[in-house]
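Exercise 7. Predict the joint structure of the components listed below.
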Amino acid sequence: GESVGLHLPTLSVQEGDNSIINCAYSNSASDYFIWYKQESGKGPQFIIDIRSNMDKRQGQRVTVLLNKTVKHLSLQIAATQPGDSAVYFCAENPFQGGSEKLVFGKGTKLTVNP
Amino acid sequence: SAVISQKPSRDICQRGTSLTIQCQVDSQVTMMFWYRQQPGQSLTLIATANQGSEATYESGFVIDKFPISRPNLTFSTLTVSNMSPEDSSIYLCSEIRTGYGYTFGSGTRLTVV
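Solution:
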């Protein structure tokens, strides 16, 4: 069945360092991937997305890399700040039968130490 | 940006009772989704709610336990029926629309005692 998982459940970094959060997915037919940030007591917030016809996409301080060969997704956060502390989820759209549903990974808790 | 209003934000309920969660979006959308997030865990899709048709439930979720309504293109409700402590979770609604992608409500934190 489809599944999206993460390699690291927790990540602790120093303020100013770069952070890398990884995600593995199992459905090779997935064509759309999203990274979300979830702060305590809030719903997931969109960070960045990427389609399967790309291998890299950059935003403000964030970069998503997609390696379809090994079905791996990563989120890089540059110059991590205390406000980046949150749980990060990757999600994929398996696009089964035209469905727009998302399948979420387990999540990585990022802690930024000042 | 797209806006979803979800309520209640939290509730404490007695076992055996039911709770209805409401989601209102600021524009007409075709698809809305309902997720459950158990404590310390990721989001699991309960069902997809399409206007004008029955909701499509994921494996492990049934309509009798989680009835969903979608009376129009801006509103949906999820009911958690005959609750037990195992239903204690955060419940989130989501929608997708062209140009905005997926947007999530802030969630309903449910505690069943």
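Discussion. The longest strand of chain B covers residues 89-97.
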